[in-house]
Amino acid sequence: MTSTAVNRTSVSDPAPPARNSRRVSPAALLAAGVFVLVLACFASVALGARPLSLDTVWHALTSPDAANGDHAVVLSRLPRTVMALLVGAALGLAGTALQGMTRNPLADPGIMGLNAGAAFAVVTAIYVFGVTSFTGYVWFALAGTALAALVVYSVAALGREGATPVKLALAGAALTAGLTSLLSAILVTSRQTLDTFRFWQVGTVSGRGWDVLVPLAPFLAAGAVILLASGRALNGLSLGDDVARGLGQRVNASRGIMAVGVVLLCGAATAAAGPIAFLGLVIPHLVRGLVGPDYRWILVLSAVLAPVLLLVSDVVGRLVLPPGEIPVGIMTAVIGAPVFIAIIRRRKLAEL
Which keywords belong to this entry (predicted)? Predict the structure, then answer.
C-alpha cells in the first residue's frame, strides 16, 4: 500500500531493533507452525464423540464414499474445522494489528470493546428486527464493531495527549461495561432473544456449515489482505508517531486503512463464532517473544498459530466431557486468562 510506505531516500523498511539476540528463526517457526496447523486440522476432523483414524480421515477427504458412515462424519466435521481455521486466523491478525496500531500490548478485540460492539449489534438485530440467521448477523456485527472502534478512539483522543495506549484500553473497558449492561437489559426483558442469543454468546464453531462460511469468506479475505500488507506500516508506528512521520509515513491514513481491516475481521469472525476472547491477545505476545518485533513476521505467524490454539481448544472441549462438549469460547478463556494475568504483572509490557 503506497500510503504506508516510508521515506524512500533514507529507510525503506523500518523495523524496530531486536531487544534480545536469542530469537527463533521466523522461517523455521513458520514451517513448524504450518506443520502443527496441519496436524491440528486432522485432529479436528478425526477426534470427537466418534474418534476416527487418520487413515480414514485421509480417504474420506481424498476419495469420499457416500455410503461410508465414517466418511460422512469426517465430511460433517470439515466445515467446523475450516471455520476454526478462518476465525482463528482472523482474530490473530486483528489482535496483532490492534497491538501495533495502539502501541498497547494489552490490546485485543475483546478488551478494546470491539466484541462488545458486535454482540450488542447482534442482540439488537435479534430483538428489534427478528434476525436469526448467521448470515444476517454479519452485517450488524460489522456495523457494531465499526461503531465501537470509532467510539473508543474518539473518547480516547479527547484531551491534550490524544489517544494514548492507556486511554484506549480504558475507553475500551468502559464501552464494554456499558454495552454489556445494555445487552443484559434487553435479554432480561425478552426470553426469546435470550434463547437465540445465548447459543451464540458463548463462542463456538460447532453447527456452522458452508452456508455460513461462504458469505463470510469475502469479508475475511479482504481484512486479511489489508492487514498482511500492513507490516511495514506497523513497524513504523512501533517507533512512535513522530518517528514514523519523519520517515515519510502518513500515520492517520495508515491507521485508518488498518482499522478497516480489523473491523472486517472482527465483525465477520464474531458474527460467525460469537465473542471468542484472549486469542488475539495471547498469540501476538507469544510470537513477538519468539521472533522479535518485526510485524511483517508477527502478522504471518499469528495468522498461522492462532488457528492452532483455536483448533486445539475446540478438540479438547469435545474430549473432556463426552458425549457432550465445552464451547471453544470457554476453552480459550480458560487457557488465555492466566496468560493475561501474567502480562498485566509484567510492568515492562505496559507499552510497545
Answer: Cell membrane, Membrane, Transmembrane, Transmembrane helix, Transport
